[in-house]
Specification:
Helices cover 21% and strands 26% of the residues. The chain is of the alpha+beta class and 312 residues long. Bound molecules: zinc ion.
C-alpha cells in the first residue's frame, strides 16, 4: 500500500496582477505562505507534473484547495501527440534542468495566463457591445482562470540538486472534475463541434488573434467543467481553461511557441463558424495581417488599457 507523505514548504508568492499595453507582464511579490506539499505528484500533463498542497493558516474566506505545477522537462518534443505523453513515475518526477531555465518557463506560463484573462474579458465586452450576451457573464468560471499566483519553492523536494536558486511553481485552484475537454491543439484549430461552448471558444480564439493585432494565437486550449457560486448565491456552471500555449510573431522562448508558423497554421485553418458570424468577426477582423486596425493591444492604442478591460 502506498503511503502518501508530504513536506513542509515555504512559498513566497509572486503574482502577475497586470499586463502592459505591449502585453508584457508586471510581476509583484507578495507574502510568504507555509504549506504542505505532497512528495509525489498526483497527475501529469505532457510537460508538467501536478502536486497537492495544503495551505497552513489559510484565510477562513478561502476554502479553495490548491495544486502546484512544475515542468518535468523543458523540451517540447511531444507536441504532435499531446494525449499520449509518456507516463511518469509520479513518486520520482525528474527535474533535469537548471532552476533558472525552469523558472523562465513558469514566468512564460504566468504571462500567458494573465494575457488570456485580459483577452477573455475583452472578448466578453466585445460580445456585449455586439448584442451577444448568451455566451455568459465574465465570471472566473466562464473562461481562462485568473492569473495563477506563482510561488517560489524555497526548500522543495525537487531542488536538492539546485541549492542556489529555488524552483518556481505555478499554483492553481484544484478543480474536482477529472473531465477534460480539448478545444484545440498546438497546430490544429478546427473544431467538428457545434455546441455553444465549442463555438464560443472558437470565436474567442479568432478574437484574440485580432485583438492582439495579429501578433499571437492561443493554442492547445483545454478545459474542465466547474461550478461556481455567484455573488447572489446562485450556482452556475462554466469551464476553466488551463495550460494554454501561445504562438507569437516574435517567437520568444516559451515552450510550444511555434512562432509565425503556428500563427500561419491558425490563419489557414480557421473558417468562421456561427458565433464568429453573429459577432461579425469575419468582416470586422480580417484574418490576414496588414490593413488598418480597429481595436487592440499593442503600442499606439489610445483606447482601452488591457489591464483594465472589463473591470467597469
Ligand atoms: Zn471565425
Amino acid at each position: 500500500m502506498a503511503v502518501s507523505t508530504s513536506t513542509k514548504m515555504l512559498f513566497s508568492k509572486i503574482t502577475c496582477p497586470q499586463i502592459t499595453l505591449h502585453g508584457d507582464p508586471i510581476f509583484a511579490t507578495g507574502d510568504n505562505v507555509t504549506t504542505w506539499i505532497s512528495d509525489s505528484a498526483f497527475a501529469q500533463g505532457s510537460m508538467k507534473a501536478v502536486y497537492e498542497i495544503a495551505v497552513i493558516n489559510q484565510p477562513h474566506d478561502d476554502t479553495a484547495r490548491y495544486v502546484a505545477k512544475r515542468f518535468f522537462k523543458l523540451q517540447d518534443d511531444s507536441w504532435s501527440d499531446l494525449d499520449n505523453a509518456h507516463p511518469l513515475d509520479l513518486t520520482k518526477v525528474p527535474a533535469e534542468f537548471l532552476a533558472e531555465a525552469h523558472n523562465a518557463q513558469i514566468q512564460h506560463e504566468q504571462t500567458c495566463l494573465a494575457r488570456g484573462t485580459v483577452f477573455i474579458k475583452s472578448f466578453y465586452k466585445f460580445c456585449h457591445e455586439n448584442g451577444v450576451d448568451e455566451v455568459g457573464d465574465p465570471s472566473p468560471a466562464s473562461g481562462m482562470k485568473r492569473p495563477a499566483p506563482e510561488l517560489e519553492n524555497n526548500q522543495g523536494a525537487s531542488t536538492e540538486s539546485i541549492p542556489m536558486m529555488g524552483l518556481m511553481w505555478l499554483i492553481e485552484k484544484r478543480h474536482p472534475s477529472q473531465r477534460i475537454q480539448r478545444f484545440s491543439r498546438t497546430l490544429e484549430h478546427a473544431t467538428p463541434h457545434s455546441d455553444q461552448l465549442h463555438l464560443t471558444i472558437y470565436a474567442l480564439q479568432r478574437f484574440i488573434y485580432r485583438y492582439s493585432n495579429n501578433e499571437l494565437v492561443f493554442a492547445d486550449l483545454q478545459g474542465t467543467p466547474v461550478t461556481t457560486v455567484g455573488r447572489n448565491g446562485d450556482l452556475s456552471t462554466g469551464t476553466v481553461l488551463f495550460d494554454p500555449m501561445t504562438c507569437t510573431r516574435t517567437q520568444g522562448s516559451g515552450i510550444g511557441n511555434h512562432g509565425p508558423n503556428g500563427i500561419q497554421t491558425f490563419v489557414e485553418q480557421h473558417q468562421c463558424r456561427e458565433l464568429c458570424d453573429t459577432l461579425d468577426l469575419g468582416t470586422q477582423f480580417l484574418l490576414n495581417p496588414g490593413k488598418d486596425d480597429t481595436a487592440g493591444y499593442q503600442l499606439g492604442d489610445s483606447g482601452s488599457d488591457p489591464g483594465h478591460v472589463g473591470d467597469d
